Amino acid sequence: MSRPDGGRWAGYGAAACAAAYGSMKLAQALGANALADKDPLPPHLRERLLARDPFFVTSHWVLAGAAVVGVVVALATVRGGPVPRLLRLICWTLAVFMITRSIGFVGWGIVGDVLTLTGLRRPPAEHAELARMLARWDLLLWSPFFLLWGGCWAVAGWRLGRMRRARAAGAPDRQRVLDLLEPGERHRLRRGTGR
């Protein structure tokens, strides 16, 4: 039996995260709340979001469409065959973006949430309770979700790079070789007896 490819789960994981995110955005585009009130946005943007401002409704549709593309791209990382460089670039770009968002170098994220919840970063007094509530939601839901999703993209990108290097070095695809052999020959090859 051939050794299973341990990195394939990352492509499936990225696809599952994209499908979950896309489903939420589609529900929001169709009028459901679907955690819209938990989006960590500044108060003036949050009001527009909850009032179903056309800009936000359009953004939900765009993000739902982007999530469909994300599912397709994630599943493309799982297939065999030649690995396009663009696919690796997309994986790594998404990984960096999502991990950066989850950690909080761009404002919201684990760092920003902890700073808000510990009082080291004080929100405006009139929005303090809302900011703490959104920081809790972001710390417990959004940041871990984006960290998981970004981690899946990173492992998928790493796997694609490993596959590309193996093909460039001329390493044979063991499973393809085994598929071409007769059952008796496969058994001898696996046992290492040769002829």
Short description:
By secondary structure, the protein is mainly α. It contains eight helices and no strands. Helix 4 runs antiparallel to helix 6.
Description:
- 71% of the residues lie in helices and 0% in strands.
- With 195 residues, the protein is an all-alpha fold.
- α1 packs antiparallel against α3 and α5 runs antiparallel to α6 (128-168).
- The longest helix is centred in the last third of the chain and has 41 residues, at 128-168.
Describe the secondary structure blueprint for this structure.
Elements: H1 8-29, H2 43-50, H3 54-76, H4 85-103, H5 110-118, H6 128-168, H7 174-180, H8 183-191
Helix pairs in contact: 1-3, 1-6, 4-6, 5-6
List keywords for this structure.
71% helix, elongated, mainly alpha, 8 helices, 195 residues
- The number of E-state strands comes to 0
Give the amount of beta strand, in percent.
under 5%
In DSSP terms (H or I, runs of 4 or more residues), the helix count works out at 8
Coarse morphology:
elongated
Give the SSE order as H and E letters. HHHHHHHH
From the N-terminal CA to the C-terminal CA, the straight-line distance is 18 Å
**Relative helix content:** over 70%
Major sheet, described briefly?
Answer: none
Low-confidence stretches: none
Estimated radius of gyration: 22 Å
Mean pLDDT: 86
* Structural classification: mainly alpha
